[in-house]
Automatic annotation (TrEMBL):
It comes from Flagellimonas aquimarina. This is Phage holin family protein. Coiled coil: none annotated. Pfam families: Phage_holin_4_2. InterPro entries: Phage_holin_4_2 (IPR007165). Keywords: Membrane, Transmembrane, Transmembrane helix.
């Protein structure tokens, strides 16, 4: 249940950001749920491999290269999903930053509701 709720919150964040950012597009709520699911799987499987392979450049850039890795993961997801479009790597970086920020806000709201 908790996993399903987090998935739906991530899908809502994807929908909100697709309305805010002109370089990102999502066709429907179903596509947003698929995007949230694919991003979760890619972050679980592909991201650790990319982080290990790019560890030297990540250390040299003091961790800022992780933003590029997140953008690459988003671009990979956009290639897999037909209803999800990201126009450039810059929009993917902005989308990644805002998605992380929005997810933390939404998840904190849910945690506060559970405490009451």
């Amino acid at each position: 249940m908790k996993l399903l709720l987090k998935l739906l919150l991530n899908a809502i964040a994807v929908i909100i950001l697709s309305y805010v950012l002109p370089g990102v597009g999502v066709d429907s709520m179903t596509t947003a749920i698929i995007v949230a699911l694919v991003l979760s799987v890619l972050n679980f499987i592909v991201k650790p491999i990319l982080v290990i392979l790019t560890l030297p450049i990540t250390i040299v850039t003091l961790g800022l290269f992780l933003l590029v890795i997140n953008a690459i993961i988003i671009l990979i997801a956009a290639d897999f999903i037909s209803g999800f479009q990201v126009s450039s790597i810059w929009w993917a970086i902005i989308f990644s930053l805002l998605l992380s920020f929005l997810q933390s806000i939404l998840h904190s709201i849910i945690k506060e509701d559970k405490k009451k």
